[in-house]
Amino acid sequence: MNRRTSIFSLLVAGALTAAVVTPALGAGDGHGPGGSVSPTERNAHWVSTWTSMPQLTEPGNMPPAPFTRADSVMTDATLRQTVHVSAGGEHIRLRFSNAFGGAVLPITKVSVALPQDGKAGTGAIRAGTTHRVTFQGRPSVSVPAGAQAVSDPLDFRLAPGSNLTATVYLAAGQASTAITSHPGSRTTSYLRAGDHVGDADLPGATPTDHWYFLSGVEVWSRSTTSAAVVLGDSLTDGRGSTTNMNDRWPDLLLQRLKDEPATAGTALVNQAAGGNRLLNDGLGPNGLARLDRDVLAQSGVDRLLVFEGINDIGTAEASPAAQKQVAADVIAAYEQIITRAHTQGIRVYGATLTPFGGNTGYDDPDGHREEARQTVNSWIRTSGRFDSVLDFDRTARDPLAPRTLRPSMDTGDHLHLNPSGYRALADAVPARLFRQAPLPRGFGYN
C-alpha cells in the first residue's frame, strides 16, 4: 500500500467499501499518462463534474404515492438515482440541497456505486462497487432548510463521461411537502419503502423521472481540469431529448470535448431548468438571482455559457412597448452576468436565441416577440461584450423561413429541439473555446 492510499484510507476509515473495477484512469482529470491526483498534491482542486439546478418541487412533480403524504415525503424510503458525470477522477464528493425545503432534510444513509452495465436510469448497481458516503465521519446528516451539505471526500474511481448511482435512505422522511428537486432529469429514479441503500437491485421499486435532493458531484483534479457551466432553460435542460440517453446538447458537446486532448480536461455542467427566465422567477429562481449559487459558487469554474432569454420574451406582453422593454432588460441582464462572472475570472460565451415561429404560446401574429428576439440576437452578435458568440439561431433556423426552426430539428411544438437538433447545437460550439489559455490583459475591468 503506497503513502497516498494510506493517507486517504485514514480519512474514510469505518466506511463500507469494496474494490471498484473500472478502466484504469490517467491523470486526476481522468486523461493522459501518469498517476491519479493525491489528496495532498499541489495545484489540485475540486471541480464540479455534474450538477442539477435546485428547484421548489411543483405538486405534479412530487414523489409518487405512497412516498408523498399530507405533511411529509419519503418516510422510511430509499431513493436511487443515476447521474451522468463529465470529468473523472479517483476522489469524489456529493452535494445535497435543501434550498427550498420547508423543514430540515434528515438524510440517514447514502451510498454510491456504478450502475449495472454503466447505464443511466437503472435501479440495479454493479456488484462490488458500493461505497458508503459520510459527513464529517458520520453516516447521516441533517440539512437545515435553505442550506446544502457537502459529503466527505470518498476514494472512488470514476471514469470521465460515465454514469454514477447515488442511493439515499430517509428513515424519518422530510416533514414538509415543500422539497427540493430537479424535475427535468430526463433520467429515471427509483423509490422503495425501507432501507435498501446497500441492495444490488430494487425489485418492485416505483420509478419516477425526477431527481430529488442531490444537486452536485465533484471530483478532485489537477488545475488543468476546469468546469464550464451552462445557464439556460428547457432548451438546455433537454426537453425533447431522450429519457435515459443523455442526448441534451451539453451532453453531446461533452462527447466532442472528450475526444480532443486539448479539451479533454473540461467538465461541462448543466444548470438549466424548463421554464426558467433571466428576469423573473417562474420554474425556479430567475437567472440573475441564481447566478451566485449555480455558477459563481460552483467548484473549479472558469467558463460560462449563457443560452437563456426565450422565456422572458415569450411571456412578456405581445405589444411594441412591452417587447422593446423586455429586449432591453434581457440585454441588461446579460451585461450583469458578464460583469459578475468576469470579476471571478470566468469567460462568458453567449448563445443567440433560437426561433419560435409557429409556437402557439410565444409566436404572435404581428411579430413583436420576433422583433425582440432579433434585437437581442443582434446585440449578442455585435456588442463584443461576450468573450465569444455561439450562433445557435443560425444553426437551428430554417433557411427558407428564418422565423422558424428547421423541420428536421423541431419536436413539433416549434420551440423545442429533438436529439438531431441538439446534436447540431453541440456541433456548432467551437472546441477551441475550452482550451486552457491565460486571461487577456485587463480581463474583468468591465
Please characterize this protein's 3D structure.
This protein has 446 residues and is of the alpha+beta class. Helix content is 21%, strand content 26%. It has helices spanning 3-11, 234-237, 249-258, 287-296, 310-315, 320-343, 368-382, 392-396, 419-427, and strands at residues 44-51, 55-56, 77-84, 89-97, 105-107, 109-113, 131-132, 141-143, 148-150, 154-158, 163-170, 180-182, 189-193, 206-208, 211-212, 214-222, 226-232, 266-272, 301-307, 347-351, 388-390, 397-398, 401-405. The strands form six sheets. Strands 7-6-11-3-13-14 form a six-stranded antiparallel β-sheet, with no helix packed on it. Strands 1, 4, 9, 10 and 16 form a five-stranded antiparallel β-sheet that branches. A five-stranded parallel β-sheet has the order 18-17-19-20-21, with helices on both faces. α3 packs across α9, α4 (287-296) runs parallel beside α6 and α6 (320-343) runs parallel beside α7. The longest helix has 24 residues, at 320-343. The model is unreliable at 1-34 (pLDDT under 50).
Can you give me a brief rundown of this structure?
The chain has 446 residues and is of the alpha+beta class. It has helices at 3-11, 234-237, 249-258, 287-296, 310-315, 320-343, 368-382, 392-396, 419-427, and strands spanning 44-51, 55-56, 77-84, 89-97, 105-107, 109-113, 131-132, 141-143, 148-150, 154-158, 163-170, 180-182, 189-193, 206-208, 211-212, 214-222, 226-232, 266-272, 301-307, 347-351, 388-390, 397-398, 401-405.
